[in-house]
Design a protein that fits this description.
Elements: E1 6-11, H1 20-29, E2 33-38, H2 40-45, H3 48-55, H4 73-77, E3 82-88, H5 90-98, H6 104-110, E4 116-120, H7 124-128, H8 130-141, E5 145-146, E6 150-153, E7 159-163, H9 167-179, E8 188-193, E9 198-199, E10 205-206, H10 213-223, E11 228-233, E12 245-248, H11 252-262, E13 268-271, E14 278-280, E15 299-301, H12 305-308, E16 314-321, H13 325-336, E17 340-345, E18 357-358, E19 360-364, E20 369-371, E21 375-376, H14 377-399
Parallel strand pairs: 1-2, 1-3, 3-4, 4-5, 8-11, 8-13, 11-12, 13-16, 16-17
Antiparallel strand pairs: 6-7, 9-10, 14-15, 17-19, 18-21, 19-20
Helix pairs in contact: 1-3, 1-9, 5-8, 10-14
Bound molecules: cytidine-5'-monophosphate.
């Protein structure tokens, strides 16, 4: 997503400037070309050399420099794919809202037609001040995207709203803005993720080894291609992605209810979750005591979500298989009456449950079979969405 993108990262004079090093580092590692512009105040908090070392590119601090192509620097930087100001102080926000261009960063923003994203960071009183709020509203109405701030401990020692958003959320928002008008623009996609938990007693449950990584990768990839995403997630240790509706559930029944609500108006349902097939018949109110004899739990079937939830949307299921991958997946596609099935081989630990990568075969109703090598789950997600986008395009042609 970020590979080959040109990103201007504006740093202003906030103590949170040191956290922007992580943003610059992650963007650079993702393959983006990051040009940092620092205001004079920012250089009091952190040295330009830090950003220069991290991004491998010169850092601009001076209004009156020429780029390597002998262009006026703010004009050449203004053509970036996105300008991100992180952290943005109340002062920079006020200048931008009033169209003042007396430093290199504001001049670049004013000279640019690129999308602008800002991540404010400041004292809670400054943030809540109606002047700052008015300025932010003006920037929002002009199409700026605002990420954060979040609540928490501030540099003053007080707690409140004003903390710099975390790097993951800032980068997630950058991806979302860059993906506006993507091939899934305007589509609503419901994705399920993680392993459901079926309670036995107040402290025990039956679950599985799903990490949720495949579902989260699908949700993020769909968001970054312009879709409106609802992520229905069982408990996972993953950071909740920004820019989508998140519905937290625990059990298969709760997932069924949440998916039913979310799919009342959707274009696509992707069931990446590992849903328990059985749950204890009763959840005990008291913790089960250890006895000298064994223990038998009575179990019942959970609803098969893919089968029971019907509607005019594309259904994608997963089939984690340890043998006869294609044959079993084909059968599942027919039994569950779905449009695509993603079969993954779970016989080796480098793919499937918990792994960062997946080796999948995608099969559709016409028995078209696509085999993919071991790929990072984010790349697998894009392969699946490529097929979903084709199905959506075919469906809308048929409806014409
Ligand atoms: O468990 P099974 O291999 O049949 O799962 C295949 C697909 O069905 C997966 O996409 C899974 O999310 C979905 N599923 C479901 N409801 C269940 C069990 C599985 O929707 N109760």
């Amino acid at each position: 997503m970020l590979k080959g993108k040109t990103i201007v990262l504006g740093i202003t004079g906030s103590i949170a400037a040191y956290k922007a090093v992580d943003v610059a580092s992650q963007l650079t590692q993702s393959g983006a070309k990051v040009d940092v512009i620092m205001t004079e105040a920012a250089t009091k908090f952190i040295a330009p050399l830090t950003f220069q070392t991290i991004t491998g590119r010169p850092v601009v601090t001076n209004m009156f420099t020429l780029s390597s192509e002998s262009e006026v620097e703010h004009i050449s930087l203004a053509t970036a794919d996105i300008i991100t100001i992180a952290p943005a102080t109340a002062n920079t926000i006020a200048k931008l809202a009033s169209g003042i261009a007396d430093d290199m960063l504001c001049a670049t923003v004013l000279a640019s037609k690129s999308p602008i994203l800002i991540a404010p960071a400041m004292n809670v009183n400054m943030f809540e001040n109606s002047i700052t709020q008015d300025n932010l509203s003006r920037l929002k109405s002009r199409g700026f995207t605002i990420v954060g701030p979040v609540s928490g401990r501030l540099a003053s020692g007080k707690k409140g709203l004003g903390r710099f958003a975390n790097a993951t959320d800032i980068i997630g928002s950058i991806c979302q803005v860059l993906g506006d008008n993507g091939d899934l623009d305007g589509k609503h996609i419901v994705v399920t993720a993680g392993g459901t938990q079926e309670p036995i007693d107040p402290v025990r449950c039956i679950t599985n080894r799903s990490s949720g990584k495949m579902g989260y990768a699908l949700a993020e990839a769909a968001r970054d291609r312009g879709a409106m995403v609802t992520l229905v997630t069982a408990p996972t240790s993953l950071t909740k992605p920004i820019g989508m509706e998140i519905v937290n559930i625990c059990t298969a029944r709760e997932m069924y209810q949440a998916v039913r609500v979310a799919t009342s108006q959707t274009d696509v349902l992707i069931m990446a979750a590992a849903v328990a097939d059985y749950c204890p018949l009763r959840e005990l109110d008291e913790k089960i005591k250890r006895e000298s004899t064994g223990l038998t739990l009575e179990m019942e079937r959970t609803p098969d979500i893919l089968v029971s939830i019907k509607g005019d949307f594309i259904k994608v299921g997963f089939a984690a298989e340890s043998n006869n991958l294609v044959e079993n997946a084909r059968q599942k596609l027919q039994q569950k009456d779905i449009d695509l099935i993603v079969a993954n081989d779970i016989t080796s630990s480098d793919s499937g449950f918990c792994a960062d990568d997946n080796r999948v075969t995608i099969i559709d109703r016409e028995d078209r079979i696509d085999n993919f090598p071991l790929l990072p789950k984010r790349e697998v997600a894009d392969k699946i969405l490529d097929r979903v986008a084709i199905l959506l395009a075919t469906k809308s042609k048929q409806q014409l």
